[in-house]
Amino acid sequence: MSATPPYLPPGVPPQAPHWPGSQPQAPREARGVAFFVAIFLGILLVASGGLNVLLLLLSVGTLAGAGMGDLDGIAFDEVHIAGERGGRDKVLQIPIRGAIAEAGSAVLGSAGGTVSYVKRALRQAAQDEHIVGVLFLIDSPGGGVTDSDDIHAQVMRFRADHPQKKVMALFGDIAASGGYYVAVATEHIVARSTTITGSIGVIMSAWNFAEAAKKLGVDQIAIKSARTPYKDMLSPTRAMTGEENAMLTSIVDELLDRFVQVVDEGRSNLDRDQVLASATGAIFTAKQAKERGLVDDIGDHEHALTWFQQKLGKPVTIVEPRRRPGLADLLMGAFGPTKGADAAIQSLLTASTGPRFLYYWEGGR
Question: How far is CA 250 from CA 75, 163, 203, 243, 245, in A?
Fold first, then answer.
């Protein structure tokens, strides 16, 4: 016969049976929100400590490298490219890779775009007595009209101010349009055997959705004065007028004349008619470019090294400045003189309020 449980008053829950020799268990306390918040904060503290240690190790590692100094608040390291390591006399290689575009980054401490990078590197070359020459390594389809012209002007000023320092251009895969525009500011141009160059010309492209907008019933409203009938020129929702087309073409022609003039002045072996014969927007192989007088030689870094040593009459070492990442770079990932070719092209083609005039080969993006 089973034992009858003792009578419990209403509202009192039944208790667990207590066996002889066993210890009564205290009721388990519920873990409140504060407990989990404390655990989360502890994890954050440990992660923060680990990140600080990592940043310290990275900083020590970069400081231990061969530094080229702190220029405009941005530190650079020196990377050996060609010639005898540790040589006293150096040629500073300045790479121009990807689209030529000057666009500020929102990341604090950004190095800026192509124009800023070249300006800093040329200033370094001017200030360092051990830098006896400059080699522009160009692998670019070109870029903005003003940005390309700005770099060209910087190179011309450097040559005028430091005639004893030799300046040369070496092409990579592509040195087209604005990339070639920059190169003609140098004393000597060498293309690799696989280089594509040329594309001497100007372009401005824009999308027009006028016909699609009509079919979809979309209409853009542009409020403009009768005295400014061209204010909405290149609107994507209306067709361009003949007057507008003529106006833009005249600007393109003027900028093309500027390009031709720059090539004519930079290539002493060519007259204006010879430059005009190549200024059709066409691209050329290295062999074709040499036959047209657009480049001087076909070679590589060793060829460039030999040219510098012959011109300077002494052994030289080719080195390249590589930006030393700072704290903001380590945290946010903003490495290098630019944030890569894709970012430069995006900035060039989309980070503006509208279409731009470009010394740019669209096939080289």
Answer: 44, 37, 12, 11, 9
The one-character DSSP state at 96 is E
CATH superfamily of 85-364: 2-enoyl-CoA Hydratase; Chain A, domain 1 (3.90.226.10)
Backbone angles phi, psi at 318, to 5 degrees: -90, 125
What is the set of active-site residues? 177, 231
* 232-241: pLDDT as tens digits: 888 888 888 9
How many Å apart are CA 173 and CA 195, to the nearest integer?
A: 5
- What does the domain layout of the chain look like in residue ranges? 85-364
State pTM to two decimals. Answer: 0.74
CA gap 105, 247 in Å, rounded: 33
Q: What are the tens digits of pLDDT across the range 174-219?
A: 999 999 999 999 999 999 999 999 999 999 887 878 888 888 888 8
What distance in Å separates the CA atoms of residue 154 and residue 160, rounded to the nearest whole number?
10
- DSSP string spanning 115-154? HHHHHHHHHHHHH-TTEEEEEEEEEE-EEEHHHHHHHHHH
Amino acid making up residue 236: P
**Residues whose CB falls within 8 Å of the CB of residue 110, separated by 6 or more in sequence, listed in order:** 104, 328, 334
23-32, 78-87, 304-313, 317-326: which is most confident: 304-313
